[in-house]
Write a structure and sequence with these properties.
- It contains seven helices and four strands, in the order E-H-E-E-E-H-H-H-H-H-H.
- With 202 residues, it is α+β, with helices and mostly antiparallel strands.
- The protein is 51% helix and 7% strand.
Length: 202
């Protein structure tokens, strides 16, 4: 397998999953500062975004939930997905909330504000993004009440929450208690530490 990633991007969560699984894989860094069409990755994934996973048979997988689901299902011994339908559904639900909600609706506005035409538009985008992120973390905090992991047992949904938590520092966002404890548990996992080291992150 080969993972195309950018340090600190959402691909970090998939990087963690590959370390959790422990099978051989390659990791190639993608320069996201280049226009999408000019990235060599565009020849492999027309979306030209990370994470992109090239499987051993040469086929390509894109989109965080799909990659996480496939890695979990093809490595059942690693217990990254519950056995029962309800548990699997809850993992997908939590993952999509982290990716489509926190990331795409919230943090994307905050990171993208620098491209706004005027200072007023920048501030408006940041405020809107911060509101979505704050409310999202509050919802996730409630989901974690009385449990260590989002779906009860550790799953690929937890890696999706983790990468979002790594983005709070530059925006000085304080994580609510249960989410902060989850973040600490994630940082203590050897797979997380290995992925962070490989990407040059602390």
């Amino acid at each position: 397998m080969k993972l195309y990633y950018s340090p600190g991007a959402c691909s970090l969560g998939i990087h963690v999953l590959l370390e959790e699984i422990g099978k051989p894989y390659e990791a190639e860094r993608v320069d996201l500062s280049k226009p999408a069409a000019e990235r060599p990755l565009a020849q492999i994934n027309p979306k030209s975004k990370v994470p992109t996973l090239v499987r051993d048979d040469g086929s390509v997988l894109t989109e965080y939930p799909a990659i996480g689901f496939w890695l979990a299902r093809t490595n059942p011994e690693k217990r990254l997905l519950p056995d029962d339908l309800e548990g699997q559904t809850r993992v997908l639900e939590a993952t999509d909330f982290c990716v489509a909600g926190l990331h795409m609706q919230g943090f994307s506005r905050m990171f993208g504000a620098r491209r706004a035409a005027t200072p007023a538009e920048q501030e408006s985008m940041r405020a809107a993004g911060r509101d979505i992120v704050t409310r999202g973390f509050a919802r996730l905090d409630a989901m974690l009440d009385g449990r260590e992991w989002l779906a009860g047992s550790y799953s690929f949904a937890d890696t999706a929450l983790f990468y979002n938590c790594t983005w709070t520092r530059p925006f000085e966002i304080t994580l609510p208690g249960n989410v902060a404890a989850h973040f600490d548990r994630m940082k203590n996992r050897p797979a997380v530490q290995a992925a962070l080291k490989q990407e040059g992150l602390s």
